[in-house]
Amino acid sequence: NGLREPIQHFRTIFICGDFNIDLLNPNKLKQIDEFINTAYSLSLYPTITKPTRVTSHCATLIDNILTNNIENNIISGLLVNDITDHLPIFIIYDDNYRNNNPGNSIRYRRIRTVNTTNAFKNKLIRQTWE
């Protein structure tokens, strides 16, 4: 619900991270279908299409950047390295304009405290992992 307002006001949105949802095999689990359907219902589309985690026995696409920007002014991809088992993802966005009214923008910031970290851990513990 928190995303509907910025989307309705035609704001460009990028959501990135390790979703732990393999988009290379979308038909394996109901949760994957629900994730994809929810993203599409919010007009959010994945920008990464190649595997982001490759091992000797499998390749998965679990890290991604979702956006509602479907124009050709973005470049996204993977940085190939051997530092971690996940390949870093990136996106470059050319907004082509200057915002002359900086008071018009909305900024979201994650506040990390001991309390918020513990609350997050408690939610994870209470989650049903099937």
UniProtKB/TrEMBL annotation:
Keywords: ATP-binding, Endonuclease, Helicase, Hydrolase, Nuclease, Nucleotide-binding
Gene Ontology MF terms: endonuclease activity; helicase activity
Signal peptide residues on this chain, from the entry's feature table: none
InterPro entries, alphabetized: Endo/exonu/phosph_ase_sf
Keyword ATP-binding: yes
Identification of the protein by name: Helentron 4 helitron-like transposon replicase/helicase/endonuclease
Organism listed in the record: Nothobranchius furzeri (Turquoise killifish)
Gene this protein is translated from: HEL_DR4
